[in-house]
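[Discussion] Sanity-checking designs against the backbone

I'm trying to build intuition for which residues belong where. Below is a structure token string of 552 positions. I'd appreciate it if someone posts a full sequence so I can compare it with mine line by line.
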């Protein structure tokens, strides 16, 4: 009964972190693309041809867009909440699954702590509150690993079909990572177990052990499962081609999943990128990661499943490191393994740890407490410590609330005893809660895009068909409607002369040197801390004024 209460408490806390204030911030960066594709799908009733501002935009599989459309029927439309809700729900399911996986591998306290650690890892919370498909991929991969762990020692059966279907569905959210990552984890785990069982045998004997360990793949169930999974995955792509000559979907699969792995056109970070990224996305629990990676004392691993968790971690890390395309958030699927490893080392007795493990765990607590202590620097006014223009940044919102929470958190951490892992989880929960419930919504009040879009709508609603864009399609989600996009000032000028365009939105940088027959009637507001690049990206609304007067 106690386990269910603590597990339920973690799930409630996770729901609060992922859902409270979810829609209070405007969409930013890539969130706009997911939100706008879903908005246009619902507006047109065409769910197989993704578009942004009416132009085909097949950058991701259809599944992630469909989830947002489905969420929009709960929120009354495709808005910020609907765009982020699928990721938040996926994050919550991920916390539940990691506890189930931990329960299978370890004991009840460790499994529940693993859920709390995942729910309070910075990268996981950040992307569980973001309108992208990254957390859907994390949870999908985790679900496949969980199903594999439950059944790998059993005879092949319906679970093999479910395994492949889960991989196919996960791949429909962001790409073939839904198949690649679980296959790498399962193959590495099966081979490691087989090699351990065949220790001392010949090479032929070890090869036979590896084949036997993967026997669940070589059954009639797999013959049924693989074609079925392929049909589930490929059907949306084939339907998207019907009625058109376009094949953007399958071309995207090849370009973004195969070509990008070996020869990317962007996102080419250094080979050591993920070493630093890992400690950021797993914060604050990354303080204990070095200790978690030290093997336990011989015979003290705690469960046979500990081998799978370590394979899970290293297979994901090495997979993304081997890829030629590297970007920080790609590594998010490693976080469930991090949560399980850190929970295990946190609950282990001193006898279970090697000397280095004990030392690194103690060092982790020093770093954790020191990090909380250093967070108090945020209470110092910016103008006291930062140069211009950063000295003009807004003050910390609800400073008194932060000060109280920081003081209490630091005090209980210093005074915590045997339950200090749970105290640390509580402090992490409160810190992230302040950041996502208080600080970021307050910062959103300084964003200027939504206010600008509202003014544009107010001025142009009586003739919406005469509004155009010049390199400014990022505003369409906030506008709530599409507008004709022009790529050159010359093409836009011709449209103005012909009376097709009365207003247009453009970034300031694209108007430099342009001689357009229009005048600026509204500008996106600015702040004193914004630099030249930010100023150049500000949006302007211009109204055409005929032959007589050019833009000034």
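Best answer:
Here's mine. Compare freely.
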């Amino acid at each position: 009964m106690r386990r269910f209460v603590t597990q339920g408490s973690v799930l409630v806390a996770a729901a609060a972190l992922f859902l409270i204030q979810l829609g209070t911030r405007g969409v930013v960066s890539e969130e706009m693309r997911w939100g706008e594709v879903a908005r246009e799908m619902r507006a047109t009733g065409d769910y197989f041809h993704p578009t942004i501002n009416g132009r085909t935009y097949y950058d991701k599989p259809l599944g992630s867009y469909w989830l947002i459309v489905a969420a929009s029927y709960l929120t009354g439309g495709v808005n910020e909440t609907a765009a982020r809700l699928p990721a938040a729900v996926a994050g919550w399911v991920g916390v539940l699954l990691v506890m189930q996986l931990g329960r299978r591998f370890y004991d009840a306290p460790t499994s529940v702590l693993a859920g709390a650690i995942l729910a309070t890892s910075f990268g996981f919370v950040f992307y569980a509150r973001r309108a992208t498909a990254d957390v859907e991929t994390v949870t999908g991969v985790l679900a496949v690993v969980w199903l594999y762990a439950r059944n790998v020692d059993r005879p092949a059966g319906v679970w093999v079909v479910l395994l492949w279907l889960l991989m196919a569905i996960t791949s429909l959210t962001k790409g073939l990572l839904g198949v690649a990552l679980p296959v790498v984890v399962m193959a590495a785990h099966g081979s490691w177990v087989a090699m351990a069982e065949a220790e001392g045998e010949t090479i032929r004997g070890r090869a036979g052990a590896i084949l036997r360990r993967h026997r669940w793949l070589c059954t009639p169930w797999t013959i049924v499962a693989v074609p079925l999974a392929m049909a589930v995955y490929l059907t949306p792509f084939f339907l998207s081609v019907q009625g058109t000559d376009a094949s953007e979907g399958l071309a995207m699969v090849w370009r973004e999943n195969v070509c990008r792995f070996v020869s990317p056109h962007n996102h080419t970070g250094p080979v050591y990128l993920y070493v630093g990224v890992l400690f950021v996305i797993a914060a604050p629990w990354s303080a204990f990661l070095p200790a978690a990676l030290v093997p336990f004392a011989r015979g003290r691993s705690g469960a046979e499943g500990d081998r799978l968790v370590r394979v899970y971690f290293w297979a994901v890390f090495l997979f993304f490191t081997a890829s030629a395309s590297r970007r920080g958030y790609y590594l998010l699927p490693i976080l469930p393994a991090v949560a399980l490893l850190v929970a295990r080392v946190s609950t282990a007795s001193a006898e279970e740890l090697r000397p280095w493990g004990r030392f690194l765990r103690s060092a982790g607590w020093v770093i954790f407490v020191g990090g909380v202590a250093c967070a108090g620097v945020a209470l110092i006014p910016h103008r006291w410590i930062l140069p211009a223009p950063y000295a003009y940044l807004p003050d910390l919102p609800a400073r008194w609330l932060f000060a109280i929470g920081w003081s209490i958190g630091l005090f209980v951490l210093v005074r915590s005893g045997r339950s200090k892992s749970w105290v640390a989880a509580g402090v992490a929960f409160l810190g992230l809660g302040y950041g996502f419930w208080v600080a970021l919504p307050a910062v959103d009040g300084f964003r200027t895009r939504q206010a600008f879009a509202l003014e544009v709508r107010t001025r142009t609603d009586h003739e919406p068909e005469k509004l155009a864009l010049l390199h400014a399609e990022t505003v369409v989600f906030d506008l709530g409607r599409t507008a004709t996009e022009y790529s050159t000032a010359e093409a836009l000028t011709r449209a103005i002369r012909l009376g097709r365009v009365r207003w247009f939105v453009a970034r300031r940088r694209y108007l430099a040197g342009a001689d357009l027959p229009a005048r600026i009637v509204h500008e996106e507001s600015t702040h004193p801390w914004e630099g030249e690049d930010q100023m150049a990206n500000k949006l302007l609304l211009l109204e055409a004024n005929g032959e007589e007067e050019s833009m000034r």
